[in-house]
Amino acid sequence: MNKNILEKIESNNSTCPVSYCLSMIGGKWKPIILYLISKGINRFGVLNRTIEGISKQMLTKQLREMENDGILSRKIFAEIPPRVEYYVTKKGKSIYPIIEAMRIWGETNIINRD
């Protein structure tokens, strides 16, 4: 591991890189939201209907957090009714390998729930 990274992890003024990553994509909903948007499901209403168990308030909160963190961008279309679409930013796309690894691990282990 890079010496500078180790120094940052050990310093009191910085957080662990894993903690930072989890703050960006951790929790119950963010990985699911990112996965769906990466597959082209990028409208609020469709996301809300697709993600079983998420409330509109929670979806809004998670989308806003990821937008504030630079993972997602939002485009508002001046239509009636208004249409909002979400897109993954360059920073967000760098998370794809993590999400894909989670998908593969889940597919491999969902059958063997020992």
UniProtKB/TrEMBL annotation:
Superkingdom of the organism of origin: Bacteria
Gene Ontology MF terms: DNA binding
Statement: the UniProt record of this protein carries the keyword Transcription regulation: yes
Domain HTH hxlR-type: 16-114
PROSITE patterns in the record: HTH_HXLR (PS51118)
UniProt xrefs under Pfam families: HxlR
Alphabetized UniProt keyword annotations: DNA-binding, Transcription, Transcription regulation
Protein name, per record: HTH hxlR-type domain-containing protein
Organism encoding this protein: Polaribacter porphyrae
Lineage, opening ranks: Bacteria, Pseudomonadati, Bacteroidota, Flavobacteriia, Flavobacteriales
